[in-house]
Write a structure and sequence with these properties.
Blueprint: E1 4-8, E2 19-24, E3 37-42, E4 45-51, H1 66-75, E5 80-89, E6 99-100, E7 104-107, H2 136-149, E8 158-161, H3 170-178, E9 183-185, H4 188-197, E10 201-211, H5 222-253
Parallel strand pairs: 1-4, 1-5, 5-10, 7-8, 8-9
Antiparallel strand pairs: 2-3, 3-4, 5-9, 6-10
The protein binds hypoxanthine.
Amino acid sequence: MTSIAIIGGTGMNQWPGLEVLERRDLDTLYGKPSAPLLRGRVAGCEAWFLARHGEGHKLPPHAINYRANLRALKDVGVQQVVAIAAVGAIAPWFAPGEVAVPDDLIDRSWGREHTYSDGQPGSVLEHVEFTHPYAPPLRAALLAAAAAAGVELGRAGVMAVTQGPRLETPAEIRALQRDGADMVGMTGMPEAGLARELGLDYACLAVSVNWAAGLSPAGAGIHDEIHASIEAGMDKVRRVLAALLPRLATSAEA
Ligand code: HPA
């Protein structure tokens, strides 16, 4: 059974190089996922792929059915989820085009269906531990894969998750910076929390695509920066994933 899934976001709404073997149009207790799940082959290994923003990249971050997405992956037997996230850089070490594997997060999203412990009949009240929001073994596998692929990673980093879809103000970014955030995206939560509730191993490969609001040394527009950097960053992502899948497949067999 294929136990690895990649959730692709902005810049990776499709997975070039994925030879699609199966397309599953699923429904869950929580509704339909963003898109059909694709099972395919890359680098000689099988993996599932889900386009977080839907086919055609139409779903804004707050309208994504995160509960259905994670539940659908669990239902097809996925155990490990690597989330690809295009983010704005807050830390000076995370220039656009660089990739990093965050190890902590700050959730500033709101109003999203963020838990399966929702008090509905059949649900169980569980206070899942979130001291390590990203699964340490999967993070370690990503770091090893990046090294094997010759992709230099930024430091670990703290991911802040904002509501969007608008970008932040400079004052909001300064506040996140004071709170210890190194990068900012819009979809990291409730995705990571729901994965934890379902017992899935979840880690994130973050791609810096712009300096967060007010931080561009060149004073460049955010959309211009995104345009200029996203392909270089996603090329690194694809290389890391191609090195990751055989490693995960081997450790699953061991
Ligand atoms: N802020 C929030 N989310 C983002 C950004 C940003 O600057 N860039 C890409 N996703």
